[in-house]
DNA sequence: CATGAATGAGACTTCATTCAT
DNA sequence: GATGAATGAAGTCTCATTCAT
C-alpha cells in the first residue's frame, strides 16, 4: 500500500531541489517546533525550559541556538505559525460572505474547526489556569485580530449597519469566540456546530437569541 | 434575594490591638504581598523571581519562606486577595438586584469600577502580550466565577427566563466583561459608564442593541 | 610548644569578637583569594576559569558569587591586595628618606624584598609570555604608581634637583624596577641586594654607573 | 659592522604573479590577519574569540582552520609579523652604528617611529589595563630581544666599555624604551624626538643627564 | 521568628572544531 | 579548498531553599 519513495543518500539536484543541507535545516527547524509544541503542551509555557525542548528533539544543545534564541522565540514562532495558517482560512470566509451574519457564522465555524483540529497538540496536560498560547500578542496574531477588525468594518458597512464602537465590538466577539471555543473543547463529544451556533447567536442577538438546550 | 452563605468575615480581635509579634507578622505578610504586586507588575509573572520580591521587601530571604512557599503561592495570594475583595461587592449587587438585567448591570458596573481602581497597581510596565494576572484560575477566582454562575442561575430562574446553556453563557459574559474592561482601561479618559453600557447591551441584545457612538 | 587555643564551637561574644558567621565569611573570602592565586599561578590568567577556582576552594559554586562577580573581580582583588600591602611599606620608605637617592634605594629595595616574598605564590608555572598580574591597572595599583609619582616630586623638590619630565621619569623608573625585579626572580640564588644596587645605579647614573659584575 | 645572519628574505615568485588559487590563499590569510588585528584591538586579546575574527573576515568558519589552528596562533602570527618587520630595521641601525650611543639612539628612535606608525592599528579601544600585545613573548619577539642583547654585547665590546650585567642592562633598556614609548603615544602631539631623547639620556646618564623640560 | 550565607542543581549559552557537501 | 550547520563539552551564573546563628 505504501508507495513512499525512499530517497538515496545522494540528493538529486537536477532541478532546483534543495540540497541535503537545506533539507536538514528545514527538518531541524520543524523538529524544534514540534518538540516545543509538545513540551509546552505538557509542562506549560512557564515550566518548560529550552533544555526540555532540546532533549525532545534529540539534537545537540547548540543546534537549538542556530534556529532560535530563546524559549520565547520558539513560542512566538509557534504562535505565529498558527496565526499564519489561520489567516487564509479567515480570508476565504471573508470572500465567501454576503453579509455580516454569514461572515460571522463562517469565521466562527472555521475558528472552531481549527481549534478542534489543533486541540490535540495543545491541550494535553496544560496546567490549570495557564493561558492558552495564542493569548500572547505576537505580530502574526495581532495581524489576525486586525484582519477581523477590518473585515467587520467592511462587512458592516456593506450591510449599511448603524455604526458601533468597533473596537469594543471586535474585542467582545473575539472574547466570546475564544471562551466558548475553550469550553467546547472541554466537552465530550466536541460539538463544533453547537458551540458555533451559540456564539453566533450570542453576538447577533444576545441572551434572548440563545438556543434552548 | 440572596441567601448564599459566604465565608465568615475576618474575626475581629477583642481589643483590636494586636500584640507586637502579631503586628510584625501581619506587616511582613503585607510587605511581601506589596512587593510581589510591584514586582509582578514590573517584570510580569514569569520573569519575576522570589529573589526579586524578597529584595524589594527588605526582609531576609529566609523570612519569605515563613509566609509563602513559592512565587506561585504569593501570586495566588495576591489573586485571591483581589477575588476576596470583589466577592462581597458581587454579593451586594446580587442582593440589590431585582432581575437579570439589573443584576448584570450592577455586577458589570461594579467590576469595571473595581478594575479601574486596581488598575494602577497592575498595569504599570506589564510586558506587551503578558496575560492579565487575574486570568489564572486560583481557587478564589474560580469561586468568583462559580458565584457568577450560581447567581445567573438563580436570577434567570427568578425571571422565568427560558433555559440556556449556562456554562457557555456565563463564560461568554465573563469574557465580554473582561475584554471590554481591558479595552476600557486603555482609553483616556477611562469611561466606566460607557464601557459598562456597551457590555450590558452586548449581552442582553447582541449587535443590534449596541449603543451608537 | 603549641599554645594555640582551640575555640569551642559556640563563639564567645563577650567583647565584640565576630560571631561564627562573620568568621566563615572572612575565611571564605580568603579561601577564594588563595585558590585564585594558586590557579592563576598554575594556569595563567586567561586559561583560568571561575570553575577552577571554585574547585580548589572546595566551596559550592554559588558561594563564589557571594563574594566576587567574576574571574576579573577576584583577580583585581588579588592585585589590589598586593598593592594595598605594599603601600604602607612605600610610605615608610618615603618617611625615612633624606634625599632622592635614599628614597630610591629604600623603595626599590623594599619592592624587591616584597617581590621575593610574594614570589612563591605567583611564579609557579606561569605560561611563558603571560603578563605579570600586577601589570593590570587596578585602582589600588594605580594608587601605588601615583604615590611613587608624588613621592618623586616631593623628594626631588626637596633636593632642589632641576626639573625633569616627571611622568616619563617615574614611568621609566618603575619599568626598570619591574623588569630588573623580574629577572632577579629568575636567578638562583635570588640576589636582592645585587638587583637593587643595579636598578638604583641605572636610574641615578645610567650605563656608566653600573656595577661591574 | 654587522655580520649577523638573518633569516632569508621572502622568496620572490618567478613571474611575480600568483595563480588564482595562490592569490586567494594569500588574500584569505591576510584577511584573517587584518580581522584579527582589528578584533584584538577592539576587544583585547582575552575577550576576543575565533568567532569574532571569522565574523569580521566574512569567510566561512571552517576556512579559518585552513590557515590557523587557534586564536593564539593568529595572535602570534600578528606579533611575529610586527617583530619580523621590525628586525630588519633594527639590523639597519646596527649596521649604521659607530658606537653604543649611536646604536642606542638609532634603535630607540627607530622603535618609537615604528610604534607611532603601528599605533593606529592597536591602540583603539584597548580595555584599560590590558597589556600591549607585543608584551607576549612569541619566538619572533624573543628573537628581537635576543638580537638587542647580542647587538649590545657586540657594540659595547667594540667600545671597550667595561663589562656590565648585560642581562639586566638589556632588560632595563627595553623596559625604559617600552614604557616611555607607551607614554609617548598617550601625549598629543606625539613627540617621537623628545621621547627618544629622554630614553637615550636616561639610559646613558640616568637622572642627572635628563633633559630639562 | 528573623537572618542571610551556603548550597548545588541545573538553566542558559557560547565556542572551538569537525565534516558532509 | 570553501562552506556553514551540527556538535557537545564546558563555562557562567542564577535561583530556590535550607539551616546554623
The CATH topology name of the largest domain in chain A reads Tetracycline Repressor, domain 2
Beta strands of chain A, count: 0
The appropriate CATH architecture of the largest domain in chain A is Orthogonal Bundle
Fraction of helical residues of chain A: 55-70%
Number of domains of chain A: 2
CATH superfamily of the largest domain in chain A: Tetracycline Repressor, domain 2
- pLDDT averaged residue by residue of chain A: 85
Give the strand content of chain A: under 5%
Main CATH class of the largest domain in chain A: Mainly Alpha
Main sheet attributes: strand count, strand direction, barrel closure of chain A: none
Order of helices and strands of chain A: HHHHHHHH
Count of alpha and pi helical runs of chain A? 8
Largest interface: A-B, 45 and 45 residues
Give me the Rg of chain A, rounded: 21 Å
Assembly annotation? homotetramer
Q: Which structural class do you get from the secondary structure elements of chain A? A: mainly alpha
First-to-last CA distance of chain A: 46 Å
Q: Give the overall shape of chain A, derived from the CA principal axes.
A: elongated
Q: Could you list the spans of chain A in which at least 5 consecutive residues all have pLDDT below 50?
A: 1-15
Protein name (chains A, B, C, D): AcrR family transcriptional regulator
Pfam families (chains A, B, C, D): TetR_N
Organism (chains A, B, C, D): Caulobacter rhizosphaerae
Keywords (chains A, B, C, D): DNA-binding, Transcription, Transcription regulation
Amino acid at each position: 500500500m505504501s508507495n513512499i519513495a525512499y530517497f538515496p543518500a545522494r540528493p538529486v539536484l537536477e532541478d532546483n531541489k534543495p540540497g541535503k543541507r537545506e533539507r536538514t535545516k528545514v527538518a531541524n527547524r520543524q523538529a524544534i517546533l514540534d518538540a516545543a509544541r509538545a513540551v509546552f503542551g505538557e509542562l506549560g509555557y512557564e515550566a518548560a525550559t529550552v533544555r526540555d525542548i532540546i532533549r525532545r528533539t534529540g539534537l545537540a544543545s547548540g543546534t537549538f541556538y542556530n534556529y532560535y534564541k530563546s524559549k520565547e522565540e520558539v513560542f512566538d514562532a509557534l504562535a505565529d505559525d498558527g496565526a499564519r495558517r489561520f489567516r487564509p482560512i479567515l480570508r476565504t470566509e471573508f470572500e465567501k460572505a454576503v453579509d455580516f451574519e454569514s461572515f460571522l457564522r463562517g469565521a466562527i465555524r472555521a475558528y472552531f474547526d481549527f481549534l478542534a483540529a489543533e486541540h490535540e497538540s495543545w491541550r494535553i496536560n496544560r496546567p490549570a489556569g495557564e493561558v492558552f498560547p495564542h493569548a500572547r500578542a505576537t505580530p502574526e496574531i495581532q495581524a489576525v485580530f486586525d484582519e477581523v477588525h477590518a473585515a467587520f468594518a467592511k462587512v458592516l458597512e456593506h450591510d449599511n449597519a448603524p455604526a458601533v464602537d468597533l473596537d469594543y465590538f471586535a474585542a467582545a466577539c473575539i472574547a466570546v469566540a475564544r471562551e466558548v471555543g475553550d469550553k467546547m473543547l472541554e466537552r465530550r463529544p466536541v460539538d463544533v456546530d453547537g458551540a458555533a451556533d451559540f456564539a453566533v447567536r450570542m453576538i447577533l442577538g444576545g441572551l434572548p437569541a440563545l438556543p434552548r438546550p
